[in-house]
Design a protein that fits this description.
Helix content: 25-40%
Largest sheet: 6 strands, mixed
Radius of gyration: 18 Å
Shape: flat
Order of helices and strands: EHHHEEEEEEEH
Number of domains: 1
Oligomer: single chain
Strand content: 35-45%
């Protein structure tokens, strides 16, 4: 099976239903937001928005982007509302689905700590309850692996 993406599958399906490209364009972001709510609520932080899904024979990849406007400095803990206008992409493995490995590719925003005495100048927003900063697996996949060991 070739790689399939959510945007291509949805667009082709809607086109078969006689929707024009202009009608299809605004539907896809709504579909991704609904899928986030129904499939990932309580698992993925609320400030992440699903952008795409890619499916192959052996893997599924969910592409996420942060929509947060602020982040907590990991050193001094005030809320920063000063984005650095840079992003970091990181890949985390999650529990398998239907015999396929699952990956979450998350684009997180870099922020700047404005506290004058904080040694942390810039930092990447954290994903509490979802994944540790330096990990390669989600927290729930880590718990699953430990429970099975």
């Amino acid at each position: 099976m070739e790689r399939q993406t959510g945007s291509h599958v949805l667009s082709a399906t809607l086109a078969r239903g006689s929707c024009s490209p202009n009608e299809i364009a605004p539907i896809y972001p709504l579909e991704m937001e609904a899928r986030t709510f129904f499939d990932w609520a309580g698992i993925v932080p609320d400030f992440l928005l699903l952008h795409n899904i890619e499916r192959e024979d052996t893997r599924i990849q969910y592409d996420w982007a942060s929509r947060s406007r602020d982040a907590v400095c990991p050193r001094c803990e005030p809320i920063s509302q000063a984005p650095a206008h840079e992003y970091v992409d990181q890949l985390w493995q999650d529990l398998p689905q239907a015999g396929r490995t699952v990956w979450h590719d998350v684009r997180r925003q870099k922020d700047v700590c404005r506290h004058p005495e904080c040694p942390q100048h810039d930092f990447v927003e954290r994903l509490p309850g979802f994944a540790d900063e330096k990990a390669r697996k989600t927290l729930r996949f880590q718990r699953h692996c430990v429970a099975r060991a």
